[in-house]
Every structure is written in C-alpha cells, then in structure tokens.
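User: Run a structure prediction on this.
Assistant: Running it now.
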Amino acid sequence: MICIGAFVLSGCSTAESVVVPEASPIVEEVTEMENLPVRTKSVTGYYASWMKGAWLEMDLSVYDRMVFFSTTSASDGSLLERNGWPHAWVSWLARADSLDIPVVPSLALLDADSIRTLFSSMESIERLIASSLELIEESKGQGLHLDIEYFEVASDTVRSFFQHFTDSLAQTVELDWPSAHLSMFVPAFDYGGLYDLEKVHPRYDELIVQGYDLHWQTGPRAGPVSPISGWGDDNWQRVLDRYLDAGVSPDRISMSVPYFGYEWPVETADPGSPTRGDGLIVTFGSVDPLVLPQYQISAEDRIREYGSLRDNESGSPYYTFEDSTGIWQGWYEDDVSLRHKY
C-alpha cells in the first residue's frame, strides 16, 4: 500500500452539507482532465517497507519526493526499528537518485502510551532529536518526515514537550542541514489538541494532512474514506478550511490520498448506514498474498461481482452485497475520484 500526498494550492468548492447523500450509478467514462480545475501540485509517495521489491515494477518518475515508511522510535527517544533503512534499500535509493527524486526516512511514533511517556521527559526528547538528526545524516541531508500520530486528549505537559521537540529539531536542522526537507504528519481534525497549527515552526516545509479515515475502520457508520465534500463537516473542504484559517500557507499543505478503503458489516444498504462491527481493509486491485496476506479483499473483484455506485456528494464509489452474515458496504477510491482529488 502506498499513500500519496499531493499539494493542494486551492481548496475544493464548498458544497451543501448532508448526512446521507444520494447515490448514483457509476459511469464507465472517466471525467476528461480538461474539465477539471488546474492545480499546481507536487506529489510525495510513501513507500512502505513491507512492499519489499515492488518498486521494481513502479514508475517512480511520477513522484517529486518519496518517503520511506518507516523507522520507529522507542518511548525513550532512541531508534527502535529501522526496517532495513538505509542499507537494505540501496538499490531503491540508487534508482530514485538516478531520477533526481529525493528520498527521506520517516520517523514514526504511533503508540499513545509511548508518546505520553516520551513527551514527558526532557532527556527522552533530547535523545529523539539526536535520533532524528542521525536519520537526516543517513539520508545525506535530504531530510526527514515526522509521523507522530496521537488522537487522544493531550495533557499540557505532552503538548508543551511536543512543541519543544518540533521547534528544537527545526532550529538545529536550520543550522546544520539548511537544505534538508522537513515534513510532518498532521491530523484532519485535532480533537486532542496536540498540534498547534499557529505555532508550527516555519522550517517545516510540508505539512502532510490526514486526508483519509474521515470514515474509519472501527467507526459507527460506513461512508467515504476521503470525501472532497458533503457528509457534514467530514470532508476535505472543511479540513482545508481549518488549516487555512489557522494561517498555514497553501504551499505548505499536502493532502494525503488513500489507495485503500474499508468494507463494513452494516445494518442497511443505504450510504451512511450504522455499522455492525469493524470494517475490513480493501485495496483497489489485488495484491500479492506473499507480500500482504492479510489484505486480500479487492474492490476490483467486488465490483465485478456486485457492481458499483457513486456517491454524488463525495465523489467516491462504493458497493453493497449481502451474505449469510448480513449486509456489507465497501467504500474505496478509483481513477475518477482520485483524479478529482489531484
């Protein structure tokens, strides 16, 4: 799975908010590019370590920058897992370099308990800064992506220490690696209050905004994972408005685009139906079972069997079917919906 980030330099047009949009049959013809608004964009590709040698079959030239996903940090700020970075990836790095595509490592912190522990200790923060600088050096000064994802309510201590870390790292990079590209993950909506958008250090060139999981795997309702508009406030337009209202320059905003979706057990076939349980991850096309054995539901296979509908408000396609356990509803992105996002 690869998530793509594309610079969005102007927001999508505001649409009327509805809770349950009307569905329309999917059309076979793809919208012509000349009918879409022209946007200047830069594309960043996330390359996940578990995809192994899949890059050999990819056209890397479509990317302006690539992010290796990922290295991880322990709760004391030391590097915990490298996933082969950088030595196991020298062929991929050489291929990217031959195309003048910079590759930066990501440093991921995804566990809430570890984040709380780390951002409660100045010693751990100093160690995390050292780990970050080590990764930048290994990238030959090309940069670093911070993927710190925290969706709980942040205490004053955690918030303050997180701000200290991001500021201190930016200031050090400014002095030691002035040409390095710094980016960080930021959530669509920061209900926990960790990420103060008005205080993000200007040295962060790119804020990669969570443009997915606006309906999520364990959520109460099925719906589009990455809607441009509609569905109340759960859409790209509202997310972009939040960042622009906070004073973030449009040329620093990069919306992440999911190449996956979810298939939920639902109560009815209607869009937005309450779910009966957690969703299953859906890829658009089939993936190698030797690479991702846990992700073997393909939207292409489903729509061949059950057909597909398109949601007018979000622009996203979906399908429904019923088996012995009940009704299921799957939402994903295809060439039509992705083209509108780009």
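The helical segments are 90-98, 112-118, 122-138, 156-176, 236-245, 299-306, 335-341.
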